[in-house]
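Notes from the 1:1 (GR / supervisor)

We went over the backlog. Supervisor wanted to see one worked example end to end before approving the batch request, so GR pasted a single chain during the call. The sequence is below; no edits were made to it. Supervisor asked that the structure be written out right there so they could see what the output format looks like.
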Amino acid sequence: MSETFQVKAIATVVGGHLTAGDDYQGGVESVIRLNEEYPLETLQGLEEFSHIEVLWRMHLAAPQDVALHARSPRGNTAWPATGTFVHRNHRRPNQLAISHPRVLRVEGRDIHVTGLDAVDGTPVLDLAPWFPQMGPQESVHVPGWVGDMLTHYWAPAEHRR
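Structure output shown during the call:
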Protein backbone atom coordinates (compact mmCIF):
# COMPACT_ATOMS: atom_id res chain seq x y z
CA MET A 1 0.00 0.00 0.00
CA SER A 2 1.24 3.51 -0.80
CA GLU A 3 2.35 5.75 2.01
CA THR A 4 0.60 9.10 2.31
CA PHE A 5 2.13 12.04 4.12
CA GLN A 6 1.79 15.77 4.40
CA VAL A 7 4.41 18.27 3.37
CA LYS A 8 4.37 21.93 4.32
CA ALA A 9 5.63 24.67 2.00
CA ILE A 10 8.76 26.47 3.23
CA ALA A 11 8.55 29.34 0.77
CA THR A 12 6.52 30.87 -2.07
CA VAL A 13 7.54 32.07 -5.53
CA VAL A 14 6.90 35.78 -5.93
CA GLY A 15 6.85 37.40 -9.36
CA GLY A 16 8.45 35.90 -12.40
CA HIS A 17 6.20 33.94 -14.72
CA LEU A 18 2.49 34.66 -14.34
CA THR A 19 1.25 31.72 -16.41
CA ALA A 20 2.57 28.20 -16.95
CA GLY A 21 4.04 27.52 -20.37
CA ASP A 22 5.86 24.82 -22.29
CA ASP A 23 8.61 27.09 -23.61
CA TYR A 24 10.21 30.54 -23.32
CA GLN A 25 11.14 30.21 -19.67
CA GLY A 26 14.42 32.17 -19.89
CA GLY A 27 15.42 35.66 -18.87
CA VAL A 28 12.88 36.05 -16.06
CA GLU A 29 13.83 37.01 -12.51
CA SER A 30 11.70 35.77 -9.65
CA VAL A 31 11.95 35.60 -5.88
CA ILE A 32 11.69 32.60 -3.62
CA ARG A 33 10.39 34.11 -0.36
CA LEU A 34 11.09 32.04 2.74
CA ASN A 35 8.14 31.73 5.11
CA GLU A 36 8.29 33.83 8.29
CA GLU A 37 8.45 30.80 10.58
CA TYR A 38 11.98 29.97 9.42
CA PRO A 39 14.82 32.01 10.93
CA LEU A 40 16.90 34.09 8.52
CA GLU A 41 19.98 32.11 9.51
CA THR A 42 18.52 29.10 7.65
CA LEU A 43 19.64 30.89 4.46
CA GLN A 44 23.08 31.86 5.76
CA GLY A 45 25.76 31.06 3.17
CA LEU A 46 23.32 30.33 0.33
CA GLU A 47 24.50 33.38 -1.64
CA GLU A 48 27.89 31.68 -2.10
CA PHE A 49 26.32 29.12 -4.46
CA SER A 50 25.60 29.80 -8.12
CA HIS A 51 22.58 27.47 -8.26
CA ILE A 52 20.02 25.87 -5.99
CA GLU A 53 17.77 22.88 -6.33
CA VAL A 54 14.10 23.73 -5.76
CA LEU A 55 11.30 21.25 -5.17
CA TRP A 56 7.91 22.81 -5.90
CA ARG A 57 4.28 21.87 -6.35
CA MET A 58 2.44 22.54 -9.60
CA HIS A 59 -0.35 24.31 -7.72
CA LEU A 60 -2.27 25.38 -10.83
CA ALA A 61 -2.79 21.75 -11.84
CA ALA A 62 -5.91 19.85 -10.86
CA PRO A 63 -6.10 16.21 -9.71
CA GLN A 64 -8.02 15.35 -12.90
CA ASP A 65 -4.98 16.48 -14.94
CA VAL A 66 -3.08 13.34 -13.87
CA ALA A 67 -2.67 10.93 -16.81
CA LEU A 68 -1.44 7.44 -15.95
CA HIS A 69 -0.83 6.13 -19.44
CA ALA A 70 1.60 6.40 -22.33
CA ARG A 71 1.15 9.39 -24.61
CA SER A 72 3.19 11.45 -27.05
CA PRO A 73 4.88 14.46 -25.41
CA ARG A 74 2.89 17.66 -25.97
CA GLY A 75 0.47 15.64 -28.10
CA ASN A 76 3.01 15.53 -30.95
CA THR A 77 2.69 12.13 -32.61
CA ALA A 78 6.08 12.64 -34.28
CA TRP A 79 7.49 11.81 -30.84
CA PRO A 80 6.99 8.35 -29.34
CA ALA A 81 4.31 7.61 -26.79
CA THR A 82 6.01 7.42 -23.40
CA GLY A 83 4.77 6.69 -19.89
CA THR A 84 3.75 9.14 -17.20
CA PHE A 85 7.11 8.93 -15.44
CA VAL A 86 8.96 9.82 -18.65
CA HIS A 87 7.22 13.22 -18.79
CA ARG A 88 8.10 16.28 -16.71
CA ASN A 89 4.74 18.03 -16.49
CA HIS A 90 1.62 18.45 -14.37
CA ARG A 91 0.16 15.09 -15.41
CA ARG A 92 2.31 13.28 -12.81
CA PRO A 93 0.56 11.78 -9.76
CA ASN A 94 2.03 14.15 -7.15
CA GLN A 95 2.33 17.15 -9.48
CA LEU A 96 5.81 18.02 -8.18
CA ALA A 97 8.71 19.56 -10.08
CA ILE A 98 12.40 20.19 -9.53
CA SER A 99 14.25 23.20 -10.93
CA HIS A 100 17.83 24.39 -10.73
CA PRO A 101 17.73 28.20 -10.90
CA ARG A 102 20.73 30.53 -10.70
CA VAL A 103 21.02 32.50 -7.48
CA LEU A 104 21.37 36.21 -8.20
CA ARG A 105 21.37 37.40 -4.59
CA VAL A 106 19.86 36.79 -1.17
CA GLU A 107 18.18 39.71 0.62
CA GLY A 108 16.66 38.78 3.96
CA ARG A 109 13.98 36.15 3.25
CA ASP A 110 14.15 36.72 -0.51
CA ILE A 111 16.25 34.53 -2.78
CA HIS A 112 16.41 36.30 -6.15
CA VAL A 113 16.81 33.78 -8.96
CA THR A 114 16.63 33.38 -12.70
CA GLY A 115 15.89 30.17 -14.56
CA LEU A 116 13.02 29.13 -12.31
CA ASP A 117 10.17 27.68 -14.37
CA ALA A 118 7.58 27.97 -11.59
CA VAL A 119 4.92 30.69 -11.62
CA ASP A 120 3.99 33.46 -9.20
CA GLY A 121 2.38 31.97 -6.09
CA THR A 122 3.97 28.52 -6.43
CA PRO A 123 4.55 26.75 -3.11
CA VAL A 124 8.16 25.70 -2.60
CA LEU A 125 8.46 22.47 -0.63
CA ASP A 126 12.23 22.42 -0.21
CA LEU A 127 15.43 23.94 -1.51
CA ALA A 128 19.11 23.14 -1.27
CA PRO A 129 22.35 24.37 -2.81
CA TRP A 130 23.38 22.54 -5.97
CA PHE A 131 26.49 20.43 -5.43
CA PRO A 132 27.86 19.27 -8.81
CA GLN A 133 29.48 16.32 -7.04
CA MET A 134 26.00 15.02 -6.21
CA GLY A 135 24.75 15.29 -9.79
CA PRO A 136 25.22 12.64 -12.47
CA GLN A 137 28.77 11.28 -12.48
CA GLU A 138 28.62 9.62 -15.88
CA SER A 139 27.74 11.02 -19.28
CA VAL A 140 24.06 11.89 -19.51
CA HIS A 141 22.10 10.68 -22.54
CA VAL A 142 18.48 11.26 -23.54
CA PRO A 143 16.42 10.26 -26.60
CA GLY A 144 16.61 12.66 -29.55
CA TRP A 145 12.99 13.81 -29.21
CA VAL A 146 13.84 15.51 -25.88
CA GLY A 147 16.19 17.97 -27.59
CA ASP A 148 13.65 18.56 -30.35
CA MET A 149 10.87 19.23 -27.84
CA LEU A 150 12.91 21.56 -25.62
CA THR A 151 14.63 23.64 -28.31
CA HIS A 152 12.93 26.83 -27.06
CA TYR A 153 12.43 25.92 -23.39
CA TRP A 154 14.98 28.43 -22.06
CA ALA A 155 14.52 30.98 -24.86
CA PRO A 156 13.77 34.48 -23.51
CA ALA A 157 10.23 34.87 -22.21
CA GLU A 158 9.69 38.05 -24.22
CA HIS A 159 9.75 35.87 -27.38
CA ARG A 160 6.67 33.99 -26.18
CA ARG A 161 3.74 34.48 -28.55
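Supervisor's comment: The chain has one helix and seven strands.
Batch request approved.
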